[in-house]
Structure prediction request, 82 residues.
Amino acid sequence: MSCTVDARKSVRRVADALRACDSVAAVDVLPPTKSQFDDWTIDAVVRGDGVPPEILRELALEGLTLRPMPQRAEFSSVVATK
Prediction:
């Protein structure tokens, strides 16, 4: 389990950027102690089918790993870790 300051800051920067995207309905940041992945984790709910490129771009810029998650009705779930 890695709980570094840099990882926390990185995940929070991405979460703030995702909140500014029109397609994002909600964003949560989970510390390693609360995440099923034992890493700093972003859990975002995105309107529509699939993950828009602007969201993938933000994740890639900070080096986050996208975790596959099932779709929820008319929303997609985006989970990424650092």
Observations:
- The two ends are 11 Å apart (CA to CA).
- The mean pLDDT is 91.
